[in-house]
Amino acid sequence: MNVSGFTIVRNAVKFNYPAIESIRSILPICDEFIVNVGDSEDQTLELIKGINSPKIKIIQSRWDIIRGKEVLAEQTNLALGHCQGDWAFYLQSDEVAHEDDLPRLKRLMRKYENDANVDALRFKWLHFFGSYYRYRVDAGWFQKADRIIKNNGKVESFGDAYAFRRKDQRPLNRINSGGFIYHYGWVQPSGIMTQRRINAEDIGFTSLLPSEKTQDYDYGGLDRFPVYFGTHPQVMRERVAGHGLSNADWKNISRENWWNPLKIFRVRYKTFKRVKERICR
C-alpha cells in the first residue's frame, strides 16, 4: 500500500500559513507528497523546496482568481491528478495532523485498502480561534470533513475545496477515522488576519466593510469559546510557544482550571455541544 500526500499553497509567507508544519505532520506516513505551488508574491516556492525531502514533488501553476473560490477545487484536483498512491491524504496549508493519530490512520488505510464500500476517511475538526487554546463550534464552522480518499479516479474535490464527492454523484462512503484535523487559519496576528480576510474577499469567500480592510482584526473576548486542554502537533511547538495571546490565555485557563483532569493530563478532547446561533465578530 502506498500513500500520497497532497496540498495546494500560495502566498504562504505573506499570510503566515503553517504550510511547512502541515506537510511535515503527515510526511512520515506518505510515500510521496505532491505540492501544487501557485503563482505567489513571496518566497513560497523556496519555502517548499527548503523541506528538502525526496518525497516532495512540486508542481507549479497559475491560479485564475477571477473564477472565485472554485479555483481552490480546480487546483486541488490538479494536485490529486499527480498522486500515484492507493490513498491520497489532503491537507490545506493551514491544516495540521497530530502525530498520535498517524499509526491509527495507517492501520485504517491498510484495513480498507481493498474494500470497495469505503471511499474516504473522515476527521473531526478543531477550528482554533485567536488562541491555540480556544476553538469554534458555533454555526457556520463545519465540524467534520473527509481528508483521506481512495485514489482510484472516482473521487474529486469540488466547490471551495472544503470536501470531496464521487464523480458519479453517488453518496461518498466514509469511515470515521477518530482523528483530528487542527485548523490554524484563525490563529494569526491581528494585522495578518486582516490581510487574510481581504484575500478571502478577493477569492469570493466573504464581503468586508471598508473599515474592516483598514483596521487590525479584533478577536474579541476569547472566554466565550470552549477551551482546548490537549496537546498540539509537535511540528507546531515553536508557533504555539511564540504566540503571545495564547500564552496569556493559557495562564488564565490554568488558573481557573487547575483542578480539571483534562488539563492535568492534556487530553485531546473536543466538546460534543454545539452552539446553534452564530457568534458574529
- CATH arch. level architecture: Alpha-Beta Complex
Indicate the low-confidence ranges by residue numbers.
277-281
User: Might you state the CATH topology name?
Assistant: Spore Coat Polysaccharide Biosynthesis Protein SpsA, Chain A
Task: State which percent range the strand residues make up.
Answer: 25-35%
Care to count the β-strands?
11
Number of helices: 8
Class from secondary-structure proportions: alpha/beta
* Main β sheet profile: 9 strands, mixed
In CATH, what is the class?
A: Alpha Beta
**Total of domains:** 1
Q: Kindly, what is the distance between the CA atoms of the first and last residues, rounded to a whole number of angstroms?
A: 45 Å
**What's the gyration radius in Å?**
19 Å
* String of helices and strands: EHEHEHEEHEEEEEEHHHH
Mean pLDDT: 95
Fraction of helical residues: 25-40%
Give the CA-based shape.
Answer: globular
